[in-house]
Automatic annotation (TrEMBL):
The keyword Cell division applies. Residues 19-28 have a biased composition (Basic and acidic residues). Keywords: Cell cycle, Cell division, Chromosome partition, Cytoplasm, DNA integration, DNA recombination, DNA-binding. Residues 19-38, 376-408 are annotated as: Disordered. It comes from Paraburkholderia hospita. Residues 40-148 form the Core-binding (CB) domain. This is Integrase family protein. It comes from the Bacteria.
Length: 408
């Protein structure tokens, strides 16, 4: 086998590693007589570890990505086998993840995601976020632990790294990014409406995604809600305000601001179903109207299936646009109604809505609705929510704006 050094990074499928770097003589190698693997080099050992996740494509791809990055960095950047890496080496790797350099070697052109057989493919699409950096180290720590248990290496150098963020408060991860949310809206906006059934489905998809997103509701709250739960009153400035009364978890009631945008979508949905534009307080029409049969509230599971259908069809629509959309489609396949609740809260907070307002809109804390101070707070909450938290149906999806970039 040639001893020529590797000149550029390549996907693991086509990677050639010279003998002096393939790990057969790695300084951290365990006793070959005690190894439970038939692998004799680092690449085969990594493949043996990955084989445990072959039945879950998303997990396999994620784990392969992180192992591949470390293996390539060790061989190309340090000129060392994976099985010779030390604690000090991994401290350098942690810094490298923050901003992989040199850029032309490690980061794909224009930060795009290309097929692994494409010459423009690189291990990174750009610098990793802090959360992605932590996730990479967690995955690699698990890989080294497995290799130690298998007897392939003697010790786990990852275990010596101080995980500075491991005691941080939990963070919501099940939500849609702005760009992925734009793709969902793009899918809904292009739904065909040539037949009556198509029109009904398109109207439901638009209303359902609007309601979940703008109001941050739980599945059970949408399933049990009636259109008569919408009400209007005059604010302190004399202007009309719309609100939605919600009976939430633990039988706790809350009222959530209903923006003019939401009321316009409500009128649009009601018109599509042959109803007057606006409901009265006695209107017992369910928030989500069944396609057929009596107009009574649907079950929680039926509402869950309805929003899952939107995400699933949007994922298929993305996949049809090319392999570079696969990761984003996979993310949508995992999404559920509760993801939209998290998405609503996250986007409100990110757009500058006060966290107390987000808290009250999502119903995390009960409100005393009788005090004068709270009345003033409600006026402020209504103005802030309506102003900043919008559906923006007319905004083109990220792909059309030329800015749809996948996360690393």
């Amino acid at each position: 086998m040639s001893n020529t050094p590797i000149a550029s990074v390549q996907p693991a499928e086509t990677l050639f590693i010279p003998e002096r770097l393939d790990g057969r003589d790695g300084t951290n190698r365990g006793d070959p007589g005690n190894s439970q693997l038939s692998a004799r080099n680092d690449l085969d050992a990594v493949r043996a570890w990955l084989s445990n996740y072959a039945d879950t494509q998303t997990t396999f791809d994620s784990y392969r990505k992180e192992a591949e990055r470390l293996l390539l960095w060790a061989v190309v950047q340090l000129g060392k086998p994976l099985s010779s890496l030390t604690h000090e080496d991994l401290l350098l790797f942690r810094v490298f993840l923050v901003n992989p350099q040199p850029e032309n070697r490690w980061i794909s052109a224009n930060g795009g995601k290309y097929p692994r057989v494409d010459a423009r493919w690189r291990p990174f699409n750009g610098p990793l976020s802090p959360a992605s950096q932590r996730q990479a180290l967690i995955i690699l720590n698990g890989m080294f632990t497995w290799l130690v248990d298998a007897g392939y290496v003697r010790g786990n150098p990852m275990a010596l790294l101080r995980q500075r963020g491991k005691h941080a408060a939990p963070r919501v991860t099940r939500y849609l990014s702005i760009s992925l949310w734009d793709e969902v809206k793009g899918f809904v906006g292009q739904l065909p409406q040539a037949t009556g059934l198509q029109k009904a489905y398109a109207a439901r998809c638009r209303w359902l995604t609007t309601l979940f997103y703008l109001q941050g509701m739980r599945v059970s709250e949408v399933a049990a809600g009636k259109m008569g739960d919408f009400s209007r009153r005059l604010g302190a400035d004399g202007r009309e305000q719309w609100w939605l009364d919600i009976l939430g978890k633990g039988e706790k009631e809350r009222i959530v601001p209903a923006s003019p945008e939401l009321i316009a979508e409500l009128a649009r949905y009601r018109k599509a179903n042959g109803l007057p534009s606006l409901p009265g307080r006695a209107d017992d029409t369910p928030l989500l109207i069944p396609f057929r049969g009596k107009r009574r509230c649907m079950s929680r599971s039926a509402v869950h299936d309805a929003i899952k259908s939107v995400f699933g069809n949007a994922a298929a629509w993305l996949r049809a646009r090319g392999p570079e959309f696969t990761d984003r489609a996979d993310e949508l396949d995992r999404a559920s109604a509760h993801w939209l609740r998290h998405t609503s809260g996250s986007h409100q907070a990110d757009s500058g809505v006060d966290l107390r307002t987000v808290r009250d809109n999502l119903g995390h804390v009960s409100l005393n609705t009788t005090s004068l101070y709270l009345h003033e707070e409600e006026d402020k909450r209504h103005r802030e929510t309506v102003k900043r938290h919008r559906m923006n149906w007319e905004t083109p999806p990220a792909a059309e704006r030329g800015s749809a970039k996948n996360d690393s």
